[in-house]
Specification:
The structure holds two protein chains of two kinds. Chain A is of the alpha+beta class. Chain A folds into three domains: about 1-170, no CATH class; about 175-340 and about 350-420, no CATH class; about 525-630, Tick-borne Encephalitis virus Glycoprotein, domain 1 (Sandwich), CATH 2.60.98. Chain A contains 20 helices and eleven strands. In chain A, helix 1 packs antiparallel against helix 2 (about 35-60) and helix 9 (about 210-240) packs antiparallel against helix 10 (about 250-275). The longest helix of chain A is centred in the middle third of the chain and has 33 residues, at about 355-385. Chain A is globular, with a radius of gyration of 27 Å. By secondary structure, chain B is of the alpha+beta class. Chain B folds into two domains: about 1-30; about 35-130, OB fold (Dihydrolipoamide Acetyltransferase, E2P) (Beta Barrel), CATH 2.40.50. Chain B is built from three helices and seven strands, in the order αβαββββββα. In chain B, strand 3 and strand 4 form a beta hairpin. Residues about 130-140 of chain B have low confidence and may be disordered. Classes of the chains: A alpha+beta, B alpha+beta. Chains A and B meet through helix 13, strand 1, helix 14, strand 4 and strand 10 of A and helix 1, strand 1 and helix 3 of B. Strand 1 of chain A pairs antiparallel with strand 1 (about 35) of chain B, so a sheet runs across the interface.
Chain lengths: ~675, ~150
């Protein structure tokens, strides 16, 4: 029953999306608003249908309906309810169903948004074309779940029980957070892509399109950032090696579109302000979408092995065809419209914010290229030379560290430079005290025994950039206090409120600086030790003394566990107790560990139970002490706050923008209210 | 139309940056390749394989496992999965995974040195990335059941 409902819902959604896409394109060509109306209804209907399919799958999972093929694949009667609910995205078919749900939700949002930005009968054709493109992307993913990756196949006779989700994925609650966040970011890049294609098809490449597309990119960008960090945190908390990033193909697949989307968010500002870099900007957003499709192809088709890769599946060729269509179609469109994408402005001076943005964009593009090449190289090597190779982590580190350091530097310098032309005197004034602060911190660190040049450089650059950012807040706030007599905090709040987009962006930059410091410190000053201890004995790592107390076994419904108890002291004082454990799932060959982590902003102590003797007298423990790891997660929170602030428009701003669009002549609506 | 000197400067600068960048990437990849080999392929490469990063996959030879508890060092031999050939002597530091045993597939990451010993810094018991239930023979649970029994007694 569930299988039928789900499968029929996806099939109908496929037809509706196809019809809606056709109607939207027709509306774009003819300007016939009735077709646009039909396409909008189709967009909403697709969302409702996919939601039904999704809810049906959840119901099948929760009620253990093993006649549904996907439930038989990932479900189990003994899996706890929480992991049963999230097991929907623990394998290929279900994860594409989640993808389709998020995509259709974005489609419904675009439909809602189009009410304000497309008004019949004289609406411009960008919005219909964009909706048509987005519905066409829906068609592709709905095709996947109705045919080659159909999760709703009927099993007869239905098995009595299933294996449960992949043991690694039911070992941490992060699995409930990381994939939905990541997908919301990843899939959301389809919307700015569709708007860009719509703008190209409609030939509407005036000054207003960057504004429309920027907010639609900010939202998925924020989710993608958080999704990547949540994935890093998951890897840290679960995998037991004390690291958070391994340049695994799937990590790279999520990181590459983040890089190009970040470049886009910057270059779009240059286009908005100066009418420059148009071709480049639109190429970036198209590349972002292409990279999400490529990443999904690489990691979901089985061509690259990875900890995240699902089983070999028949969807590879589908992705290749889709990728080829998107790539060739976009290239053809860009070539066709290249004349309208000529730059309006030109560079006035080398010392200007435009230059900073240009360098920023080159760095982000180079970064994305480095990651892309390293990820694809094994495929190229196997095709060309027949050799099975992989590109080691050092390649990525060697090339990304210098790029990342330059970006840290620019995160502060860019905002400090004025548009058009900066003067050396102005710069000297602005750079003075941040430079002194950076130098001071570097000297202090050297005095306290820090000798690693890369870490020193990172900290100094981060302090320098942070100093410049603080000036961007402090200078106008002080000026405002002088003029109005307000208190400094109030003046600061008013200054931030007066331009949330700008100051939100600077807060995002500060978050990135905090993350950079966390990465540099935890990668450089990490200590690691492995000991075999008898009961009651202890060993030292850094300032901690770890004593092994006991080890015992527990039975749980879905797994059995072996837990070691340890007492940690620092300088003779009790510090904490940690309980690292090993989990034995009936379906996993090897036990899966749950490291015990004592997290703090200063330093994390991370314990892994490696082995134990059967009499419980002895245990082998791995201990890792890494400083400032927590800064990475803290920085993620700051990035999210800044992004929300930047997205949060005041009513006045919204009205101003709506009026600006009205003046643009596309939404002529004087009688109706703006909201 | 002739190119203005400004454009020419930009073009040359761009090409130089691109070339430097390409050189860096090329060197970066070349120095950091990890080769996936089997013992037979390793012997076939011979001295050419010394010093390179290698991921060696084979089967743990019966009777070859020696564990030095004092040095926390493990020694064993890997044979080619395709059949009986010259085994490769492996030296690995740290405790092996609990499933590690004779006859099991194992993957070691490290370098091969001229003394024909493979120095591994990472030892993995081979199981495909593909997720599946353990084969009937494998009994991961046996080990900790003993701990249960000891607790009860």
């Amino acid at each position: 029953m569930n299988a039928w409902i789900g499968h029929i819902a996806t099939l109908v959604a496929l037809l509706v999306a196809g019809g809606g896409a056709a109607a939207a394109f027709f509306a774009g060509r003819t300007g016939d608003a009735r077709y646009m109306q039909g396409a909008r209804r189709a967009g909403v209907l697709v969302f409702v249908l996919v939601l039904i399919a999704f809810a049906t799958m959840e119901r099948a999972l929760i009620t253990h309906d093993f006649s549904v093929s996907y439930v038989a694949q990932v479900g189990s009667r003994t899996t706890p309810l929480f992991y049963t609910v999230i097991s929907l995205w623990s394998a290929l078919e279900g994860s594409i169903l989640l993808w389709a749900l998020i995509l259709s939700a974005y489609t419904a949002l675009l439909v809602r948004w189009s009410r304000r930005h497309y008004t019949e009968p004289n609406g411009d054709s960008q919005v219909p074309y964009a909706l048509g493109t987005l519905l066409a992307v829906n068609v592709f993913f709905l095709l996947l779940i109705s045919w080659p990756a159909n999760p709703f196949r009927i099993l007869s006779p239905a098995p009595l029980d299933g294996p449960g989700p992949n043991a690694l994925l039911q070992n941490s609650p992060f699995m409930g957070v990381h994939p939905p966040l990541l997908y919301t970011g990843y899939v959301g890049m389809s919307v700015p892509f569709s708007l860009a294609i719509g703008a190209l098809l409609a030939g509407r490449l005036g000054t207003d399109w960057p504004k429309r597309i920027r907010r639609w990119t900010m939202v998925p960008w924020t989710f993608l950032s958080l999704g990547i960090l949540a994935g890093a945190w998951w890897s840290y908390e679960v995998l037991g090696w004390g690291g958070y990033w391994a340049w695994d193909p799937v990590e790279n697949a999520s990181f590459m579109p983040w890089l190009t989307a970040t470049a886009f968010l910057h270059s779009v500002m240059v286009q908005e302000r100066r009418g420059m870099l148009k071709m480049w900007t639109i190429t970036l957003i198209v590349s972002t979408f292409l990279l999400t499709v490529l990443g999904t192809f690489l990691t979901r088709s089985g061509v690259l092995a990875s900890v995240h890769a699902f089983t070999q599946s028949p969807i590879g060729p589908f992705f290749l065809v889709f990728l080829a269509i998107v790539l060739l179609g976009s290239l053809a469109l860009l070539a066709w419209r290249s004349e309208t994408l000529e730059s309006e402005g030109r560079f006035d001076a080398v010392l200007s914010r435009e230059t900073a943005f240009m360098i920023n964009n080159l760095l982000f593009a180079a970064f994305a290229f480095v990651v892309l090449l390293g990820t694809m190289f094994p495929l190229i090597a196997e095709a060309v030379r027949g050799a099975k190779v992989s590109v080691g982590g050092p390649y990525f580190n060697e090339l990304s560290v210098p790029i990342a350091l330059l970006l840290v530097f620019l995160a502060g310098v860019g905002p400090a430079l004025p548009w058009r032309k900066g003067s050396l005197e102005l710069m000297r004034g602005k750079f003075r005290w941040p430079f002194v602060a950076a130098l001071g911190v570097a000297v202090l660190l050297v005095v306290f025994g820090v000798r690693q040049p890369l870490a020193l450089l990172t900290f100094a650059l981060a302090v320098f950039a942070a100093g410049l950012l603080i000036e961007e807040f402090a200078t106008p706030a002080r000026a405002r206090r002088r003029n109005t007599g307000e208190s400094l905090p109030l003046a600061l709040a008013r200054v931030i409120g007066s331009n949330r987009r700008r100051y939100g962006g600077y807060i995002v930059h500060s978050g990135i600086l905090v993350i950079a410091v966390g990465i540099a410190a935890s990668a450089t000053f990490r200590k690691e030790a492995e000991w075999t201890l008898r009961r009651g004995t202890a060993a030292d790592i850094g300032r901690y003394r770890v004593q092994f107390d006991s080890v015992w076994a527990v039975k749980e419904p879905n797994r059995d566990g072996v837990i070691a108890a340890t007492t940690i002291t620092t300088a003779g004082q009790p510090f904490t107790k940690l309980y690292p454990r090993l989990n034995y799932y009936p379906t996993a060959i090897e036990p899966i560990g749950t490291p015990a982590v004592r997290e703090s902003l200063r330093e994390d102590l991370y314990l892994v139970l490696m082995a134990y003797t059967q009499d419980g007298q002895q245990a082998t423990l791995k201990a890792i002490a890494s400083p400032l790891v927590g800064w990475i997660w803290l920085g993620g929170g700051i990035v999210a706050l800044g992004a929300i602030l930047a997205l949060w428009r005041s009513r006045a701003e919204a009205e101003r923008q709506a009026r600006a669009i009205d003046r643009g002549g596309e939404a002529v609506r004087h009688t109706a209210p703006v909201h | 139309m002739a190119m203005s000197s400004r454009k020419l400067t930009v073009a040359i600068g761009g090409i130089v940056i691109l070339l430097v960048f390409a050189y860096l990437i090329w060197g970066g990849i070349g120095n950091n390749l990890v080769y996936f080999l089997t013992p037979n392929e390793l012997w076939a490469k011979g001295p050419k394989a010394y010093g390179a990063s290698i991921r060696l996959g084979g089967v743990v030879q019966a009777g070859s496992i020696r564990w030095d508890a004092d040095k926390h060092e493990l020694r064993f031999r890997l044979v080619d999965p395709s059949g009986a050939t010259r085994p490769v002597e492996v030296e690995s530091s740290g405790l092996p995974p609990q499933m590690f045993s004779e006859g099991i597939g194992a993957v070691v990451e490290g370098v091969w040195s001229p003394d024909s010993v493979f120095h591994s810094h990472n030892l993995m018991v081979k199981h495909s990335n593909e997720y599946r239930a353990p084969p009937p023979g494998a009994k991961p649970a046996e080990y900790y059941r003993e701990l249960f029994r000891n607790q009860q007694s």
